[in-house]
Amino acid sequence: MLTIWGRTNSINVQKVLCCCDEIGLPYTQIDAGMAFGINKTDDYLAMNPNGLVPTMSDDGFILWESHAMMRYLCRSYDSDHLITPKDEKTFAKADQWTDWAHTAGWVPMRGLFWGMVRTPPEQRNQAEINASIEGCAKVFALVDQQLSHHAYIAGDAFTFGDIPLALLAHRWFTIGIERPDLPHFQHWYEGIIARPGFARHGGGALS
Ligand SMILES: N[C@@H](CCC(=O)N[C@@H](CS)C(=O)NCC(=O)O)C(=O)O
Question: In the CATH hierarchy, which top-level class contains the domain 2-77?
Answer without folding.
Answer: alpha beta
